[in-house]
Amino acid sequence: MGKVAASSGEIAEATVSTAAQVRKDLSYFGSFGKKGQGYNIDELIEAIEGILGLDRRWKVALVGLGKIGQSLIQFKEFGQIGFDFVAIFEKDPEKIGKSFNGIPIYHIDEMPRVCEEETILIALVAVPAESSEEVFQRVLDAGIRGILNLSGRCCFKPPPHAFIKNVNVAAEIESLSYYLTHF
Amino acid sequence: MGKVAASSGEIAEATVSTAAQVRKDLSYFGSFGKKGQGYNIDELIEAIEGILGLDRRWKVALVGLGKIGQSLIQFKEFGQIGFDFVAIFEKDPEKIGKSFNGIPIYHIDEMPRVCEEETILIALVAVPAESSEEVFQRVLDAGIRGILNLSGRCCFKPPPHAFIKNVNVAAEIESLSYYLTHF
DNA sequence: CTTTGTGAACTTCTTCACAGCT
DNA sequence: AGCTGTGAAGAAGTTCACAAAG
């Protein structure tokens, strides 16, 4: 939009937050603004990318090549923000040895070897809910440190060196039901 | 597992929470347990379904029949928890008038009429990020009160009678990057 | 004059701990 | 004895309000 700097108020407006919140959040990581001027937009983007660890590329494994896995791996935004799928793990012997979207498909038993060789630290898990607990354990045993879980409700407590993020569309639509019922 | 009742501690264990948290959360809505016994499992499930508004069925519209929309509409869990897709809205004239998975595809201009006739209150929006702002406005104008947004980063402030829930896989994987960088 | 960065005040959320019921 | 429901205490998060800087 041609602007060089943005004030905390303008950032709040654009992100549905408040000016004080924007300033406090940023102050936790450093001083990125200039008094009287606001925040230089390019500098701020670069600072936030640094904070989030997006100033590098990450190799990602997909575990489970069902419908959800297939649609996610074709999703271009991952590449744009620095995440590259480099391996797919499956149980189905039909698929193993082939590739999907140019990415090789391995048997899930090969996970420890491939993840070490390729230094993969992040996995996107999209397997049937029944097998997710077992798969989480195998993924962690293969050296993965961050799991993005799309397998539905997850009650798996990761060890302290690992992190699980859950994306659960069913739970979100249930919360809409709650709001519409009560308000 | 053959058990009739569960204590707050057992529920906490199973949900990665704490006993006090489980009791406080439930106490906000009523008294569902028996002192000395814990919570009757069937009764508790029924109570929670009532709280969440899941003791009925909801009609849902899908807006945008791209890859994500197609994979979500085939997702059986929605039906199991009480949500039925009854209409698809699209811009592409190629698809309009046809159906997908047995659900009729309408032009997006027909949304106000169809949503009123069918009393649809919830929409799942899966359109390209560029058009999401405009689509949100049109969806709300059609009488929708709850939006589940899968179109990426959303900075749309809904009016007070409506609710938006965002599901953003890209944002979640970025937060994994943050944790792996700092811990 | 504008806007940041930040202590202090305030609000919300979580945990503690125990009276009271089964 | 076992476990809930809940005030009170403690922790975490948000907003206020203003000194300091451009």
Walkthrough of the structure:
2 copies of one chain form a homodimer. The first copy, chain A, has helices spanning 8-15, 19-27, 41-52, 67-73, 77-80, 111-118, 132-141, 169-182, and strands spanning 5-6, 33-34, 38-40, 58-63, 83-90, 99-100, 103-107, 122-125, 146-149, 163-166. Helix content of chain A is 39%, strand content 22%. The two termini of chain A are 38 Å apart. The first copy, chain A, has 8 helices and 10 strands. Chain A is globular, with a radius of gyration of 20 Å. In chain A, a hairpin with a 3-residue loop joins strand 2 and strand 3. Chain A has 183 residues and is an alpha/beta fold. Chain B binds a DNA duplex (22 and 22 nucleotides) through helix 2 and strand 2.
List keywords for this structure.
8 helices; 183 residues; 3-stranded antiparallel β-sheet; homodimer; alpha/beta; 7-stranded mixed β-sheet; DNA-binding
